[in-house]
Predict the structure.
Amino acid sequence: MNWNKVYGLSLRHFYLIKSSFPRILDLIYWPSIQIFLWGFISKFFTLSSTYYNNTVGVILSAAILYDFLFRSSISYNMMFLEEIWSRNFTNLFISPIKIKEIIAALTLTAIVRTLIGMVPAALLAIPLFGVSIFKIGLPLISLLLSLYIFGITLGLLVTSGLIRFGPSFENIAWASLFFLAPLGCIYYPIEILPEWLQIIAKILPLVHIFEEMRNILINDIISYSQIILAITISIFYFMLGVAVFYISYAGAKVRGTLINVGE
Amino acid sequence: MKLEVKNLEKKFKNFTAVKNINFHIDNGQTLGVLGPNGCGKTTTIGMLLGLIKPSNGKILIDDENFENLNREKLLSQFNFASPYVELPKKLTVKENLEIYGRLYGVKDLTKRIQEISYDLNLDFFLNKKTGELSSGQKNRVSLAKSLINNPKILFLDEPTASLDPDIGDFVRKYIEDYKSKNKVSILLASHNMKEVERLCDQVIMMKEGEIVDRGTCQSLIDKHGRNNLEDTFLKLARNKNELE
């Protein structure tokens, strides 16, 4: 691994972010809108039912964590799409950079993009709604790590599709997260799902992450086995995502699609 | 660095884009690749740059099979410029050169950027965003990117397309000077016959994926009884079933 190259490619995205105020605003805008929207929905539930005494904290924390996953994945996809939109794709793939260095650069830069958006949103939730995800305590780091790995994995799968099918796969990038949301049990316990869907949901890390978040916030109990399981499943999918990326790259070389991407 | 292509072929499902072609570029030589649109030039360049996997045949670099060589080490000695491939528009010229300098592992990058900026007259727009430049300026920046690593083999795809005669002449002069100083092997794909006559030591003419003729510019003109390379190109491009 040549870290100078990783740094070089990361710089390409840092320069892009720093050169455009609308881009920074866009990173902050959507998470903040999400927090507003869900904050008011949560507040409504609290006022309407005594059953949901702790709803503001739980639902808003879930919204913040889900948006962290969403931003991780979209940041990854966006950086790859930037190469296609700017018609820089060929230049990048003929340079002496390894595939693993491209993945590493995108993974590292995606966390910066994600944090630019999420930190202000998470802080905004404290004075506006009295909800702090930091109440989860140290396990929050593990939950965010697991979400980040899974978000990057989704990004890898979408970019594999972009390499294989070209820019026409772009819309999948936007839709991928919404597809998984119902199965992730983000805002409700897994028992809400039909039994056959519960089996599928359990092989995703999201269920374990959001169940654990609720466990901590509502019952004040930390289940380390649940956290380790979530991280393990995320790493498994990440490795699968890397393999799919390599296969797509090799397939694109056979089909000759790398030379036409962006056109 | 010597580049040799043996029986190179590329098939896409039912369509053969490049059919069993052979050519070589000796160290420090320039080979012109001519042919009408869709004749297989881009696919050939794609295979040479490692972007497209050949269906058959071999690419040899200094007599070693491309497939057996270290990809990154090899690509660090290649580079490519084309008006159809751009650099990120929102970044400044300097930022783009810095990024590609790092990707190509250029040592003493600041000095190299200064050198190449001076040589290609980029100095006064070095801090300007690449997307705000004129075609001529973008073209010079693309050339600068392609020379940032002092490549041993340079692939140029229509390097002066859409340039005015003055800037076109500047670029051609620069390539001539660069070649004489650096012993770089060049593969030049172009539709500008005057440019090919000026820059190329040898020429191959492609049509429908095949090489239909080859030689020096003058030998081709003489062989086909024409007055210049453009007329020779037109004759070969329009004649059916003409093979070397």
